[in-house]
Amino acid sequence: MKKISVSSTFSVRFASGKKLRVFTPGVHELSEEELGNWFVQGCIREGRAAVLPDDADETGLSEDKLRSMTVSSLKKMAAEMGIEVQGSPKKDALVAMILEADQAEEGDQDPDGDKGDDTDAPAGPADLDGEAKTEPEED
Q1: How far is the C-alpha of 68 from the C-alpha of 50, rounded, in Å?
Q2: Among 7, 26, 98, 112, which residue's beta carbon has the most beta carbons within 10 A?
Q3: Which pLDDT does position 56 carry in this prediction?
Q4: Which pLDDT tens digit goes with each residue over 75-84?
Q5: Distance between CA atoms of residues 46 and 38, nearest Å
């Protein structure tokens, strides 16, 4: 099985009477025969999909993968990521913007996945000096 990374949705019916297969953005597995399909090959040439190396990491974006895409596909991907593209930037600039946004998105993720709610933390102010707080004695 081969893997492709899809950047723009497309559909293929690999044989008459077979079910239509929809390829949404993300990583998909294909047989060698499916990968050789004329329509899939056209989508790869247009930059709507890219063939991944056999040992490819399924998550994240690679510079090589982005450079194999067309400028219009990169613009569409940037828009889907919330990147504001002004004017007609060159491919190198689009690749850099997308990689930077992807890196920032990975860095913004909360490591324990609780979106900042730290239920293990004390409810009140923290005692930073480690001494127990007691009420003052009355005379």
Answers
A1: 7
A2: 7
A3: 54
A4: 888 887 788 8
A5: 12
Q: For the chain, what is the mean pLDDT?
A: 76
Q: Are strands 2-6 and 26-30 parallel, antiparallel or unpaired?
A: antiparallel
125 in helix, strand or coil? coil
Two tokens, residue 16: 């008459």
Length of the chain: 139
Which residue shows structure tokens 């707080």? 133
Do the bridges between strand 2-6 and strand 21-23 make them parallel or antiparallel, or are there none, so unpaired?
unpaired
Residue in the block written with tokens 């994240």: 60
> Do β-strands 49-52 and 2-6 pair in parallel, antiparallel, or remain unpaired?
antiparallel
Nearest to 69 by CA among 44, 88, 93, 35: 44
* Residue 14 neighbours by CB under 8 Å, 6+ apart: 21, 33, 34, 37
The per-residue b/e assignment along 7-31, b for 16 or more CB within 10 angstroms, e otherwise, is bbebebeeeeeeeeeebeeeebebe
80 Cβ neighbours under 8 A, 6+ residues apart: 25
